[in-house]
Every structure is written in structure tokens, then in C-alpha cells.
Fold this protein.
Amino acid sequence: MRKIMFFALFFAAVIAQPAFADAPFHIGVVTGTVSQGEDGLRAAELMIEKYGDEKSGGMIRHITYPDNFVSEEETTISQIAALADDKKMKAIVVSQAVVGTAEAFRRVKEKRPDIICLAGETHEDPNVIASAADLVVVGDFVSQGYRIAHNAKVLGCKTFVHVSFPRHMSFETLGRRRAVIEESCKALGIKFVYKSAPDPTSDVGVAGAQQYILEAVPKWVREYGKDTAFFSTNKSQAEPMIRQVAKYGGYWVEGGSPLEGYPGAFGIDLKKEAGNWSAILKKIEKSVAAAGAKGRLGTASYSYGYTGVAGLTEHARRVVMGRSKVASIKDVASAFMAYTPGAKWSMEYFRDLAAYPKKKNMILAYQDVYVFGRGFMKAADLKVPERFYKVTKNKD
């Protein structure tokens, strides 16, 4: 079920400000379309609501990259690079650094070295995007691996089933996180199991990939027991996995958004609550309790896709205005927390395995997990043992 979200309708009444009559500078915001990431697109609409559309004299110029960005890389590059032709452009935010973003940033810098380039979740190698961007902020794929396993342990899980497919495992970020989860499970006394599922971008499509999960989860619960934690790297597989875990047993330990899988899994209409994250959590929590899954299903209380766009755009604005430093964790955290009241964040600089010193222009961000019927796991406060930062990606 496609998510129904209208962030602007809620936030317009809460934090919106009149559009600038004549904004002193522009910020380019690049997101996917509704089909590729509605959370990010709605956050871009919120930024337009708050700071105005450049077409009407405001600050924000919003564009979307192609749905089929994998095969239309050059289109993505040219669209982003073209933002530099705007004389007022001072910053560019790409919500998901899909393939081609690094090259686009290089072309932007060739034209306009004064433009600040910021990237969210990256599909490109961390070193590649970090070499071209002024700042990269991504979900903490390193320490998150330990925190996910630790949360599973706290919840009483004895087995951890990690579900993905070769394309995702080829990503440095996702592959390395899997390796950290596996090593963490070993250290915490949890059995780790890797399951390869169909890729939604393959011939089977999203429907085929979801059907596989619907059929597989009950079998896995019977095989490994109801004290098994499940985790998938793909958003479209969240809905069937949550539905089956709630019905047959097990735990869904962590998701990137309360809107990721939950509305479809439980048939929840969130039109009235759209944009009100506290109300969304409460409504989902009632459905989870009614399904008998209390204390077994977790999520980030605010969508990463949403906060990445809103937080990075806010941070870019403050940097251009001289109020923040581009690579300051304190300043980035301040911008993110402005749009996630009540959520606890942990942020740190990325450490590359080849050059262990921290990269001061790449920040890993982790938002504490909320388990329905239990509350926050307080995992953002967890001290991750140093050795897990040196775990390398699996070769398979």
C-alpha cells in the first residue's frame, strides 16, 4: 500500500513562514519522486512551504531525479549540474546520493566552487561521494550494526535473520553493516543467519519480492523460533515482513520510518494524522497491540528520508547565512533536531577502513529506535565497542 503523506498541510500551520519577497540566495533540493521516496519529496515541499519557492521569489528550487536513476545516470548528473547555472544558487542538497551524484557535484564545483554541496543517503561508495561533496550525512551503517544486534539481545532474541540480495550487498554501506551485525551477534551470543531474497528491481518486481517474504517468514519462524529478530535492507519488503512477524511471531527490530511498512501491514489510514509524527506513532501502536505484537516491532520515530531532506536543507541555509559550520556535528545535529522533537540522535564522523582517521566531511547519524508497546530502546546512548568500527565488509 502506497504511503499517504501530506507533511506540508500539517507543518504549514505549525512552523511555516511567509515566502521571501526576494530571497537573497537559492538552495537546490534534489529528491526522488513519490514512487521512489515520498518522505523526501514531502520534506522538500515542507521546505518550500517554510522558505518559499524560487519561482515566486523564495529560496527553494526543488527538482526530482529520474525514477529509473540506475539506467539514467547522465540525466541525473545533468539535472543536478544545471542548478549551478542559477546565479543565486548557494547550496545544493541531494536527499539520496544516487549513482552520478558525485560526478554532478564535481561539475557543479567546476562551474561554481562557491556552491555548497550536501548529500544524504548514498548509493555510491562513501569515499567517492565524500571526495566530491562538502558534507555527507548518512544513516550510521557502522555502529548501527552493533546497535541493531544489541536491541535484539535486549528484546530476548536468540537468532537474527538478515534479509537482502546481491545488489544491496554490493553497496559498501549495506555490506559493511551486515558484517558488523554478524560480528556483533557472535559477540552477544545470537545466532546470525543470512537469507537472500529476490531483488524488487529484478524481473519478479516488487510484487514478486513481497510475495516471497510473505511465504518465507512463516517458514523461518518455524525453523528458528519465535524469539527470532528479522531485518531487511529493502523498504518494499518491510510491509510483508512486519505483517507476517506480527501474525506468526518473531521481532522486527528496526525500520527507517513509522510509515515504512506499518500502514500497509495493518491497513491503517493516516490521512488525519499526516505530518503529526506523535499521532502517527500512537495510532500505529494501537494497531500493533490489537494484533498481539506489542513489544516486538520497532521503528525510527521520524522518517530518515524526511529528516535527511529537512535537516540538510535547514543546515545548508544556516551555513550560507554564516550561522553554522558546514561539517560541524553540533550544527548538523541542531538542524536535524529542529525537525525531530523528542527523538535522540547519535552522530559521529565516518572512519574509513583504508584510512582509519575520521573523515571530517562525512557524518554517520543514528536515531534511537522506538518499539511499539515498550518505548525507546535508548540505543543512541549506547557506547559501541571500538573493535566493531574495524569490521570489514563480507566478500560474498
User: Anything to note?
Assistant: Residues 205-224 form the longest helix (20 residues).
